[in-house]
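Page 47, continued from p. 46.
Same chain as before, 708 aa.
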Amino acid sequence: SLVVLFGATAGAYGAKLGSDERELILLVWQVVDLHSKKVGTLHKSLVKADNLDLSDQCREVSALTPEGLSKAEPLDRVLQQFCQLVSSDLKVLGRSSYTLCSDGQLLIRQVLHPETSKKNIMLADCFYSFYDLRKEFHACYPSSATVKDQTIKTMAEYLGLATDETEEDFGVWQVKTMVAIIFSMLSESCNYMFTEPETVKYKYETGPCFWFFILSSSKSETVDSETVIRARGLPWQSSDQDIARFFKGLNIAKGGVALCLNAQGRRNGEALVRFVNSEQRDLALERHKHHMGSRYIEVYKATGEEFLKIAGGTSNEVAQFLSRENQVIIRMRGLPFTATQEDVLGFLGPECPVTGGKEGLLFVKYPDGRPTGDAFVLFSCEEYAQNALKKHKEILGKRYIELFRSTAAEVQQVLNRYMSTPLIPTLPTPIIPVIPPPYTIATGSIRDCVRLRGLPYTAGIDDILEFMGDATGDIKPHGVHMVLNQQGRPSGDAFIQMKSAEKAFMVAQKCHKKMMKDRYVEVFQCSGEEMNFVLMGGTLNRSGLSPPPCKLPCLSPPAYAAFQTAAVIPAEAALYQPQALLPATRTAQASAAAPPTVTYYPAQAAQLYMNYTAYYPSPPVSPTTVGYLAAPPGAVAAAAAATATHTPIVPQPGALVRMQGLPYNTGMKEILSFFQGYQYAPDDYNGLIQLSEQARSVLQAPKEWVCL
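Result:
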């Protein structure tokens, strides 16, 4: 038997049903005996929602009112009545089992399951299996419209059935028409069989995803990008089960929730989720800005490559640790470096036994075997895991231990992070002259530039050129400038130099609020002067221009703005460009062909004011990086003469160290005191960087150490 089911919410109707998180207000159903082709009683039940504010579309389509709904039963009572009435109708028809049949997937997956999950209502087993009438109809009549374009009305029109919805109450006509469609499919001319229902997973399956093991043997395998999403804005304490509950009703692949970590190994509020197919992924995207508690969650498309970077791995030790099915994973952080397996088991105690004893423990170590203070523990059930979490911040040895829920993907991320840490820090790039651009940045008040605002953070130069379309031919050589933030990442802005003010005006008119990927981009006409202000650290908004720091007299010495003094800059400033900004067609040969000129910054007070933008060539565009200012052509000759008289000496490997995490007020004397007692090579160092006399005297006085 089938139970034909139709429902409506207080908000959107049709293809957007459930996308606005509005509550269910109507259920209509009828039992159909597929063998005898008899039907049971048609039932219509109103549902009292917590929020009785109906949308205009709901009022117009359903003709329901808040007054009428206020007298209805709440959802849990309506669902109980549904099960009881269906059982009674089945007995009358002489049947005992049934499967739901709905118009599409939305009512079951996007309305009933999410709402009952939020209200902690236990759904009956019948709601975990159903037939999608649209799919079944298309399978029976392949020449009909595609599944995506099907509606009850279009299916009825295809069969020549009556389509006047005004003859019946809202919901009643829909169910009666669906029953008539099913009988047409059961006729002798079609003799259609309902055999493969849609299923909803009862719970999320934890553990390593299948792709984790595939990666161990083959790096060529990929995950379908049409099945992956990125969820952003998650509470920091949320687990994979919390995320699975947010997507309740949709089928997530086994081990398909990968929580993302920041550079410090802590969760950053993002997760990558992999679904069983693209249809489930598309339904997940409709939950954009749905709520998890009091927070709304952003949902975007992601790629299979991104998922593999987080959830995949090649460690046999991790694969063996995660090979046990349906285990709860707890992460321990802050363990003493001398802690042993016996110490951890004793800390957890007999009330929370570890699966497999010592085999259920995984210590995280550096490549040389030193412990990091992190460990992962497996528990066979939720009860044992809850007992372990109660020991959060209890003392082991002389340290308090933090305990958190974890996932298989997090285990792999943490292991990858520490195992990829080099035993010896990477030697910084030698300080050598940097090749400056053979072009000039626009100046003046002529409005021959355009500003792009609101770019996707993943957008690169090629995306911008594609976005501009035919106007690409009107861009000046090296005329595309990406604006980066102080971390060197795309800020969502870009400036483009056009060949004329007229071309800039036409582009602004044509491309304003045009879509790039999933976002619309604002395009404004501006001048070269305004562009330079922003690229050098200033701001441009509705309030006008705010000058960059280098233009403020209270910060910048006179010699800085005039570029009077030259000094060679580190090559790494040019080499650390985000690769996403560079065109895919760029080759090493093309870079080598650039004219040999030099970029400078002033020596005086250089370390105090180095938070501006520099420009480096990248034909046919010029992405920017945060770091240094380009020098005027007159300074190039001075640098050439300086480098000709003294050949830089590159130190031997291991002769340089790089310091990170210095206090902002640290001076040269504090650094020298920090390294007191270590030998250095002052002669080699003098050839690498130009120093003032005061700095040189400080460096040469001890004759034992040097700092960069």
